[in-house]
């Protein structure tokens, strides 16, 4: 397994170490990575790793993996995760959509977290958004029964689109956001709250008995 705590960090724009290459389209062995079998939580787009580390500290009985495509943010996450010294948290450089499709087994996640994904606001860019109907269907299949899918965005158009879209995915039921304790905030959430921006939050749960 690649050494996420490597100190030989390349400052360039291109991968300078094996772990900086994008994860290929193949299954990921969570048990081998963490050295145990435990409830799994995955965050797509870990940014500066604030949520990832705080959540791992709060729930040591769970394993947390962050997936970050941006090389610069991946390096930042890798450093912060290494300094945190927690055995139940890791970070991987990967494309979030491809990772969910090819690396995560069906019914294997206790929770999936997607906070403030790129909204691709222009009309011609919308097709690049992560959270479309196809992705929501695949993501739902990767959750265990009763598993949670948490989403947050500050972009009104994205929020309104998701408000309708999540209702079209039969395996997912929408819960009131107060049904479970709020997760630790990300850096973006703290920043946007200070700016007074409204935030769209979605708390979804995988229905029992649904494929």
List keywords for this structure.
211 residues, alpha/beta, Rossmann fold, seven-stranded mixed beta sheet, 7 helices, 21% strand, disordered N terminus
The secondary structure category is: alpha/beta
CATH superfamily: Vaccinia Virus protein VP39
Low-confidence stretches: 1-10
CATH T-level topology: Rossmann fold
Looking across the biggest beta sheet, what order are the strands in? 3-2-1-4-5-7-6
Which CATH architecture?
3-Layer(aba) Sandwich
Structure description:
The protein has 211 residues and is of the alpha/beta class. The chain is globular and about 40 Å long. It has a single domain, classed as Vaccinia Virus protein VP39 (Rossmann fold), CATH 3.40.50.150. Helices cover 30% and strands 21% of the residues. The longest helix is centred in the middle third of the chain and has 14 residues. The chain contains seven helices and seven strands. The N terminus is likely disordered. Strands 3-2-1-4-5-7-6 form a seven-stranded mixed beta sheet, sandwiched between helices. The protein starts with 29 loop residues before the first helix and ends in a 5-residue tail after the last strand.
